[in-house]
Amino acid sequence: MKQKSIGAFFGGAGTKAGAKQEAVKDAKPAKPESKPKTKPEPADPASDQDNEADAASRPARKRLRRAVIEDDDDAALAVASKPAAAETAAPQQPTAAESELEDKDATMTDAPAATTKGAAAAPTAAAGTPAKSAAPAEEPKADGGGPGTASKPAAPIASIFQRPAVRKAAAAAAAGGSPAPGNAKKSGGGAGAAASPLKASASPAKAGKGAAPAGAATSTRDAAGGEEGKAAAAAASPASKKDKTKARAPKVEKAGEDGEEGEEAEGSEADPISDSDDDAGGDVNELLPEGAVGGGSGKKAKAKKAAGRIKSGKGAQMEGVGTGALAAASKYKEQDISAVISWKEGQPVPYSLLANTFEAIAGTTKRLEIVALLVSAFRAILATNPPDLLPAVYLCVNRVAPAHTGIELGIGEATLIKAMCEATGKNEASIKKSYEEHGDLGVVVVGARSTQRTMFAPPPLTIASVLKAFQNIAQTTGTKSGDQKRGMIVKLLVAAKGNEPGYIVRSLQAKLRIGLAEQSVLVALSHAVHLHRGGPAALKQPDVKLAEALEAGAQVVKQAYSECPSYDVLVPALLEHGSTDLLSRCHFMPGVPVKPMLAKATNGVGEVLEKFTDIEFTVEYKYDGERAQVHVLDGGKTVHIFSRNAENNTPKYPDIVSRIKGLLKPEVDSIVFDAEAVAYDPEKKKILPFQVLSTRARKDVAVDDIKVQVVLFAFDCLYLNGQSLLHKPLTERRAALYGSLTEKEGELLYASYKTSRDVEELESFLNESVEAGTEGLIVKTLGDTYEPSKRSSHWLKLKKDYMEGVGDTFDVVPVGAFFGKGKRTGVFGAYLLAVYDPDTETYQTISKLGTGFSEEQLSQLAEAMRPHTIPQPRHYYTWDESLVPDVWFDAAVVWEVKAADLSISPRHKAALGLVDPTKGISIRFPRLIRVRDDKSPEDATSAAQVADMFRNQAVIRQQKAQDNQAGDEGEDE
């Protein structure tokens, strides 16, 4: 199959500067790619000028390249600083050095550079530079190319701007020109309104703000490999082909209340999906090596626009549902999959395809766009080498095997730094210094690799080879395993090109950091397989019919994965049979845990009776422990215990494992039951708080060393003797549970329950549950099925907290911290908390937490959070300018907090637009209850839950007011 440019597929806006390119390797000017024979086009005088300038610039490029190789900043500075004076004297006649800078610009703007003949498409590793503006900007050519780029070679020294001295010279060279196309900063800032865009930002606050002044450089997510990424975002839009011949006008946003940005100005909806031009501006820090790997830093403009879409009702729809499916159907008809394929059919798919896709995903928060980017990559894989789809999916979800197998990467920083030193030739001090500056080893390794000379280029990495290497690394054990792992990592990094090493390092850390949720991967997988199996006929269907098929298929795939969460089973079955018969082939089985069914919050007994007026229900104690899904096979010979996140907790509970066989009734051969593991005092026969359970060791626990005893409270049966009970009503599942296990004090008990519709009885039972040390009650409908991984309205939480005005505690993610003062100097004095919005895949701030801590707690929390610090916020964070913390954190930890109440907030962004059209919701006077090690950040309280809890709070207050009024009237009588 003929090699084709990734940039050609991604709307023609990407650069191919990284193809077959080493950072300091001499390269001859590349010939433009051959194009299909069409009508001859008129000669382009700009291209001729560029060719002349390119020839004149070769000596300067060689001198500059030599200076970089020899680590001579002064020499590099002398070469790079010439354009500034030359431009002033004769702006129409670029000097050789200026042409070099202009060549460099071409590799980091929307124009794709031609590649060396025969080179496979690969991402560039360069950080972005300001677009040169002495000459008037030209409109893109009809083929998607930028001004004069068809005749320009890929700049082999693009990463030169990662060197401080040359960055400074480049800033001087770029200053004074007309602004580059893109978004202007909200506060104004036209041409020349700001200082050099290459000057490092002084604070995270500035880094987190919106688009930089006009004339600023491309953002981190759009540089180095990121230009491919930015182009990919453009290609995801149906407008990407239609608008190739004209430049898109920048979007303008109206100022909203309290400094918030309002809806996008009228007319900005020309491209409802693509956000490719939103980052044409950028913060000054975005020219540092963060640009080498997408998602390395965040921009508030992106997050605020996401909030604006919610406010105006333009928020991203759930993929495969309604308008989302229609938009997807239209988008897929615009994709040209053949253009992305640069390898022959049957050959292994290059890893660069995924690296480019990750780069593009890092540049958007639009869920539909993210799915479209994944669909394009998956379709390219299916069209050429379908077996590579499974490894591609694993790399997208940042795993190497099903979660329940316990095979994980999570390579430590020390090992990675040593491997990076070996692979790049840098010393450890240099790597560590760069890491301190950027806070992201992925960024550091790309910057280091981009300046490394290699004698012989290793063969390109493939998707399958990368996953295989990851699996080998994860499963290597023994006394010399550290050295063996490091050796395998070095091989990967040496073979990686462009931005590939950045994503390899992030994957090894199990922190991809691009804001890609697993649900989006599942939807993209479903859509891609449907389009592949349907062939051209599928895309010829009317949008509505195609949307219906996409919607139905996505729902089936998500349900199949919820019941059988193993891609090893799901992907082959989907490829062979499609979604039609998928549920019969991907079903629940012992040994593969399902994610648990979850309950929604409620505001009291009255609401329960109102919702379940004509429905039978029961209420059970809600125990304060750790969810345990117990899988028993072969009559108790094999026992597995899984957490709510499908982690294998069997080594943590050897005492439970040893008991199970004796608790099974004779007729039971296999069973899976849902339970809560709770700390227990056997002498007092009393359950203990969760904090006691959390002191228990997590791995390799010996029975003789156990100090915290645990009892299992079983409450549901999911599987029995070869039959799945997920689709059976609770009445049958409960009967199966009681008929299979034998209760034993201190070891296994059934959850206490009551079935009644009497208000007084239910309230009395709630009080009893609180006195017994539980969190409250769970209300369950008796006639409904078990719904894995779903927070269902068939289960309602009735917790003791509702009596205090708030229906539930909150699971929040700390995304930032403020330095302490006075006695708190040296530690974090307060934290910025956020909730998760799965619809937009963003973290939205909800409160600051700074009271109720002891000195010891503050010290412990600071120590625990320091490894998660990052230099700038992620692009999928949503916050207000008045709440910029001193330190930003990765979304990595979940805290459970309790609050006095909820209130409408002009500063916090949680549930923005769901209750108030222009304001979010905050929680008042939060206090930390515990750290939730059993939850991932995506399991945090959702924006929709926050909105529901706010409404429930209003109902509670109204009920209390009515009760008080009735009491007063009774006294008057």
From TrEMBL:
One of its GO terms (cellular component) is nucleus. Residues 299-309 have a biased composition (Basic residues). Residues 703-837 form the ATP-dependent DNA ligase family profile domain. CDD domains: Adenylation_DNA_ligase_I_Euk (cd07900), OBF_DNA_ligase_I (cd07969). GO terms for molecular function: ATP binding; DNA binding; DNA ligase (ATP) activity. GO terms for biological process: cell division; DNA biosynthetic process; DNA recombination; DNA repair; lagging strand elongation. It catalyses: ATP + (deoxyribonucleotide)n-3'-hydroxyl + 5'-phospho-(deoxyribonucleotide)m = (deoxyribonucleotide)n+m + AMP + diphosphate. PROSITE patterns: DNA_LIGASE_A1 (PS00697), DNA_LIGASE_A2 (PS00333), DNA_LIGASE_A3 (PS50160). It is found in: Nucleus. Belongs to the ATP-dependent DNA ligase family. This is DNA ligase. It comes from Chlamydomonas reinhardtii (Chlamydomonas smithii). The lineage of its organism: Eukaryota, Viridiplantae, Chlorophyta, core chlorophytes, Chlorophyceae.
